[in-house]
Design a protein that fits this description.
Layout (H helix, E strand, L loop, with lengths): L7 E8 L4 E6 L5 E6 L4 E5 L6 E5 L12 E6 L9 E6 L3 E6 L4 E7 L4 E6 L5 E6 L4 E5 L5 E5 L4 E3 L5 E3 L6 E6 L6 E6 L3 E6 L5 E6 L8 E4 L4 E5 L7 E5 L5 E4 L8 E7 L6 E7 L3 E6 L5 E6 L4 E6 L5 E6 L3 E7 L8 E2 L1 H8 L23 E2 L15 E2 L4 E2 L1
Parallel strand pairs: 27-31
Antiparallel strand pairs: 1-30, 2-3, 3-4, 4-5, 6-7, 7-8, 8-9, 10-11, 11-12, 12-13, 14-15, 16-17, 17-18, 18-19, 19-34, 20-21, 21-22, 22-23, 24-25, 25-26, 26-27, 28-29, 29-30, 32-33
Length: 397
């Protein structure tokens, strides 16, 4: 299958006891954390042989069952928050850990099960959300809730257009604007991305027609671009203006379907974005301008999360196969797919057509918007109550 000199190369892997819901590099790029469905958050050194630094395990519930860890973020590098991170759990807790000593410094009790978080660039506050449909702003120093964003329902704008007062279903992605500390972006199962000003309790702008089912929001402040990943067949990766939410275009035009769970910009490499997802169970590196897939890594089951280190020479990725992969990135490698050992084993007894790939970018042809059956993420245990069919009508309002 073409050259062995491929874009991705497996430089290490670790088999774990739970699905890997989230992976994240530290701000300095020297540590990798992963949040797992068995309730653990594991921290590794981001260099071979990728030794384990810490295994953070909160107490189980009264029946002895662990609550899944759903998201993890390191604090920005500073002396005050050295070796610290925050993780969210389905128990509703957001726990601040000093991972080098395995100690929990503080616990915030959320409104309901928590699925996502982000930490502001100055470390002074963080945001969490999940099943409650609201966004909580938490003061890091006091661990107290500063504000709740969202009240549900609809409101009339100044031009008599109905607009949401907040989300109407679970929120799976949260993001602070990289240059505006008071601006927060959220997305989830209600098919909207909402832009908040933290001085107000209602969104100031929104996009309809996207279907975010994981940490699939990525922002590039230098180019003023927001990218969203949707769990669907068509237009799974789209670009928007970061400030106005006006649509820029579809990044995944003419690609084999990969229903997105996660996306992240490559650090230090303009125009490159990585995405992880289901159906093809792949992580891909994509050039945003010519829409060319530069590299692909395939696993036997859905990949939920991916992240890159500071120079994008190393990627961490994991998902439902319960294996954390460390992938070396070769900018000059071919785009031939790299497959995991479990992928090879799964295909061994049932020969299938070889994976398709094309070293040339596909022609830029606008896809036809068609009605499609919306499906809840098969690998997640959370079932979307709204799985009817509708038309993809993505637009900024």
């Amino acid at each position: 299958m073409a050259s062995e000199n491929k874009y991705f190369k497996i430089s290490g892997s670790v088999n774990l006891d739970g699905d890997i819901m989230c992976v994240r590099f530290s701000s300095g790029g020297k540590r990798i954390a992963c949040a797992c469905s068995d309730g653990t958050v594991r921290v590794y050194t981001a260099s071979e042989p990728y030794p384990l630094v810490a295994c953070l395990r909160p107490k189980t519930d009264t029946k002895g069952n662990p609550h899944a860890a759903t998201c993890v973020r390191f604090f920005q590098k500073s002396k005050e928050y050295e070796n610290q991170l925050i993780a969210t759990y389905t128990s509703g807790n957001a726990m601040r850990w000093h991972y080098s000593s395995n100690k929990c410094i503080a616990t915030h009790k959320g409104l309901t099960s928590l699925l996502c978080l982000d930490i502001r660039s100055d470390n002074k506050e963080y945001i969490v959300s999940g099943e409650s449909e609201d966004v909580e702003i938490i003061d890091t120093a006091t661990n107290e809730r500063k504000m709740i964003l969202g009240s549900g329902g609809l409101r009339l704008t100044s031009v008599n257009i109905q607009a949401p007062r907040g989300h109407a279903n679970r929120i799976f992605a949260l993001l602070y604007h990289p240059k505006k500390e008071n601006v927060i972006i959220s997305a989830g199962w209600d098919r909207t991305i909402q832009l908040w000003d933290s001085t107000q309790k209602e969104p100031v702008q929104y996009i309809s027609g996207v279907y975010v089912c994981g940490e699939a929001l990525a922002a590039d402040a230098e180019r003023n671009i927001l990218v969203s990943g949707s769990y669907r067949k068509e237009d799974s990766l789209q670009a928007w203006d970061l400030n106005t939410l006006a649509k820029i275009g579809n990044i995944s035009e003419n690609h084999e379907e990969c229903w997105a769970y996660s996306c992240v910009f490559a650090k230090g490499k303009p125009n490159l974005i990585a995405m992880a997802g289901a159906k093809e169970n792949e992580v891909r590196m994509i050039h945003m301008e010519n829409k060319m897939i530069l590299g692909r890594f395939c696993d036997s089951r859905a990949l939920f999360s991916c992240d890159l280190n500071n120079d994008s020479s190393l990627m961490a990725v994991g998902g439902a196969s319960k294996t954390l992969f460390f992938l070396g990135v070769n900018d000059y490698g071919s785009s031939a797919p790299l497959v995991s050992p479990s992928y090879k084993k799964a295909k061994a007894d049932a020969p299938a057509e070889p994976l398709k790939w094309d070293s040339k970018p596909a022609p830029a042809v606008l896809p036809t918007h068609i009605k499609e059956m919306r499906q809840s993420p098969a690998e997640f245990s959370f079932e979307d109550p709204d799985s009817g069919s509708d038309t993809d009508d993505s637009e900024a309002n």
